[in-house]
Amino acid sequence: MTTPPAADITELIDVIQPRLRDRDLTAIGDAVGAVSTDQMTALLDRLPVKQRAVVYRLLPKEKAIDVFERLAPRSQGDLVLGLQDAEVVSIFSDLDPDDRVRLVDELPAALATRLLRGLRTKDRELTAELLGYPSGSVGRRMTPEYVSVRADHTVEESMRRVRAGLEQAETVYTLPVLDEKRRVVGVVGLRDLLSADPGAHVSEIMGRTETATAYDDAEAAARECTGLGVLALPIVDNESRLVGMLTIDDAVRVLEGEETEDSARQGGVEPLRRPYLATPLRALFSSRVVWLLVLAVGATLTVQVLSIFEETLEQVTVLAWFVPLLIGTGGNTGNQAATTVTRALALNDIGPHDVGRVLVRELCVGIALGSLLGALGGVITAVIYEPAIGVVIGVTLLAVCAMAATIGGIMPIVARVLRVDPAVFSNPFITTFVDASGLVVYFLIARAVLQI
């Protein structure tokens, strides 16, 4: 989805807001009638919750469904709570099963149960099947509406099967090929079927494929799908039988959500899960306050270190001037290492078994960085102050960079072993830890060099 320019959306809001206040529904309907789906989605994201439902009701049904599917799950939940039961049931029944599951996760349990009861039997069974998989698994993000073909069938038979399933299937461009026990033995593209001899067997034109199990982590499966460059990835059960397909658009959506979550937590906030302007102020407050309290408590470690070495600072006051430089450099070095390793973990470039190799590599990088920064910092400090202070600063930069890079590199791996999101252990906590430990190293070096 392309995001319309903010100026265009602001103009729409300026047109609609006065009509909302006047309750001029006819004028609002005329205003939104010519608005594109992308513009309408962006408009709803920026309207207050109460006004959002009023504007949404004025959309034609087909456009309303398209707009609803493009909204973030949390925004969908907000909109559903503002609509009447009949409207909600109509929207809910028109969604694909995997989209229903995403919405159910954002709704109060009582409302979700009521909506599920209102579905047709087949739709309810398909949705319940996906809800039976663990939260965060690819089973909740796959589509159970697909068309499969048999390896021992002819191309002509397979095309009849595809035509019969066009209305229900979410995608038919990549077709899983099954054996007599419904196990995936390959895939065949629709283009290949169309260009093949009608009498040829599917087994003659199919290609090999990777699969993921329904219980696999959704992010890992999504990265596999995008990494392979396929339009859809077959999802199987523990006995290798096909249960669904992860389409490329759903895979991209999963990765976008994970990237947003990781970026937020690396910055010390919880992800909003809805557009910024549609997020209530209390939600913005709650997304930040817990992290700030945790980091504030962690920062007391730095204060404690400074109080322990108070006498050292009193004897050589110039040491205090370099505290921001040293803790800032250490924090930045640790964050760089953590970000690099977290990304490598997400892409499956490394795993917990590589902890030793990562430690050595980050230690070497930290020493190289620390040597360069230490040499520059030491020379400049020696010229401005005195050689002994330059030695302290140079050696400390070397030690802090080596320590910070090593800690920043292995902390995400430790988080993965503990089954915690590596982003949680990333920038905020590493910065706090490196600040305190870096100061300890700094003052110990100062005492040794300056003999105080």
Describe this structure in words.
Homodimer. The strands form two sheets. The chain has a three-stranded mixed β-sheet. A three-stranded mixed β-sheet has the order 4-5-6. The protein has helices at residues 6-22, 25-33, 37-46, 49-57, 61-70, 73-82, 85-94, 97-104, 109-117, 121-131, 155-165, 190-195, 202-205, 218-228, 248-266, 281-308, 310-315, 318-321, 323-346, 355-384, 387-417, 427-450, and strands spanning 149-150, 174-178, 184-189, 212-213, 232-236, 242-247. The protein is built from 22 helices and six strands. Helix 3 packs across helix 5 (61-70). The model has no long low-confidence stretch (mean pLDDT 84). By secondary structure, the protein is mainly α. The chain starts with 5 loop residues before the first helix and ends with a helix. The protein has three domains: 6-134, MgtE N-terminal domain-like (MgtE N-terminal fold); 149-251, CBS-domain; 280-450, Tetracycline Repressor, domain 2, CATH 1.10.357.20.
